[in-house]
Amino acid sequence: METLPDLLKKLNPAIKIKDDKEFIISDKEIIYLKTLNHKSTSFAKKLIHIGVKSEDRVPILINNSPDFIISVLSLWMIEAIPVPINLKLLISEIEEQIRFLDCQYVLIDGSFKQKINIGDAKLIKLEIAFDSLMESELNFKFDEGRTAVIMFTSGSSGKPKAVELSFSNLIQSAKTGNEYLNQTAKDYWLASLPFYHIGGFSIIFRALILGAALIIPASLKIESIIESISKRKPTLVSLVSSQLNNLLDKNVQPKPEMRNVLLGGGFIDSTLIRKALNKGWKVSKVYGSTETSSFITVLSPDEFLQKPESVGKSIPPNEIFIYDKSNKAVSNNLEGEIVVKSPAVMKNYFNDVDTTNKKLRNDLYFTGDYGYKDSEGYLYVVNRRSDMIVTGGENVNPVEVEEMVMKFSKVKEVCVLGIDDAAWGQVIIAAIVPRLSNEFTLEELKNFLKDKIASFKIPKEIFFVNELPKTELGKVRRELVKEMFL
Asked: How far apart are CA 163 and CA 160, in angstroms?
């Protein structure tokens, strides 16, 4: 019978771990390899008994916790595919994603109290995971090309967009990232980002295949993160701008053990990094996406002092090109679309051949971001996906927000934008043409939207305009609207 150590060996043949190796450190317990093996193996057998099969897509509605990691490992051990779900979404949005997956089972923990309509799919509650030890044998096959995880990300339309990442993608991302991080089994990763985002999920994977320990705060609230930094002394941390800004505002000092802080997730104000470096935080700016399995470029603290607006150089074997509108590579210092070649680039978008074919061409991933490279190969991002807003590490599709705002009876036209912000990366604003000059308050709009879209998608500010600039075909010109507020 195969067990968790066998799976870890398949992921990284060079890994050497003992039963007494601490893998997960939470506010409630320390889970050693022996215990993690027992729990994941037991749950894998239980899932088989329930009816979960190889290649089944299984949504996971579980907060950052040891149970989330055990669930992922158990699904991998029966060759099923975990699909982490953003718990900050509205129930209607979660239900839409589950329907899109066409799945038979959904994993859920006791903290998820809301009623959910998942059609014919069956809920598997974690409470049953360890109520008895099943006798099923585990003899899983391992294929690096098989889908390891499906992760939702925001698209240019209202429909869900789900990225399929293979084991090979995740392994290559971890190995490439480690060329910079130099991670060892002596490291302690702080699980400071939600596991349903690639930034958080990649922390789990890096720790697992390189034998590092994973520190899970009681929650992702800043107070819990501060407590974990103080008490657990992590050596590696990954943050978004809003988190780092909160840590600086609260005058939190990095511990001597903290040797690297990755900072990503959209626009990053250079003033924030400079302030952090001055206070002793060893911040490395990174650039990547769900489609690239995490970061593909990095700018070290020393490089930041020379090129503060850059997001760094690509880490070999990753390659970055800049293409013009004719799909031809351009010279240094000329702007164009950022195009990536990397073994960490996704397999495809689940159940979306058209978008896959548009984004993946000739072994290249067309990011939709725009920027340029200088003569030394440093990348500069000028405009992150014109159809995407990244606020507090969350991806928001402005088209989706606009569709909901347009349902408010006092709105005639709207354009939703992300405006760069030092604390949040971007904040969401809405430029609105009111119907019959009938202006209204932000609170009125918030109250209207609160049960229609997740709170992080609701505009933080509204501005009334007489008209929105448009093309001859009547399409709103976002770039001109944005200039109105710069």
From this structure: 10
Which helix (DSSP H) or strand (DSSP E) does residue 33 occupy? Answer: helix 33-50
Closest CA to 166 of 106, 102, 81, 86: 81
- What are the φ and ψ backbone dihedral angles of 400, each rounded to 5 degrees? -60, -45
Both structure tokens of 455: 């709170």
Reference 84, options 50, 108, 113, 52; nearest CA is 108
Give the tens place of pLDDT for each residue, 240-276: 988 999 999 999 999 999 999 999 987 788 999 999 9
Strand 294-299 with 313-314, pairing? antiparallel
d(CA 29, CA 52): 29
Q: Which residues of the chain have pLDDT under 50?
A: 156-157
Beta strands in 15-126 (DSSP E): 22-26, 30-32, 57-61, 81-84, 105-108, 122-125
- Exposed/middle/buried for 478, CB within 10 Å: 0-12, 13-18, 19+? middle
Helices (H) and strands (E) in the chain, counts: 14, 26
Residue 97: name the closest of 61, 122, 50, 147 by CA: 61
Tell me, what amino acid is at 351?
A: N
**Nearest Cα residue to 196 out of 346, 64, 347:** 64
Q: Residue 313 forms beta bridges with which residues?
A: 298
Cis peptide before 317 (omega within 30 of 0): yes
CA–CA separation, 298 vs 164, rounded Å? 24
For residues 458 and 400, the answer to whether their CB atoms sit within 8 Å is no
**Closest by alpha carbon to 389, among 364, 413, 414, 421?**
421
Enumerate domains of the chain plus CATH numbers: 1-142 (3.40.50.12780), 158-340+353-387 (3.40.50.12780), 397-483 (3.30.300.30)
Contacts of 356 (CB under 8 A, 6+ apart): 348, 349
Which 8-state DSSP code applies to residue 127?
G
Closest Cα partner for 418 from 442, 448, 449, 384?
384
Single pTM value for the model? 0.86
10 Å CB burial of residue 364 (0-12, 13-18, 19+) is middle
Q: What is the pLDDT of residues 349-394, one digit of tens each?
A: 999 999 999 999 999 999 988 899 999 999 998 866 656 788 888 8
Give the whole-angstrom CA distance, residue 404 versus residue 368.
Answer: 24
Neighbours of 270 (CB within 10 A): 14
Six token digits for residue 439: 């202006």
Sheet of 348-349, strands arranged across:
147-153, 161-166, 348-349
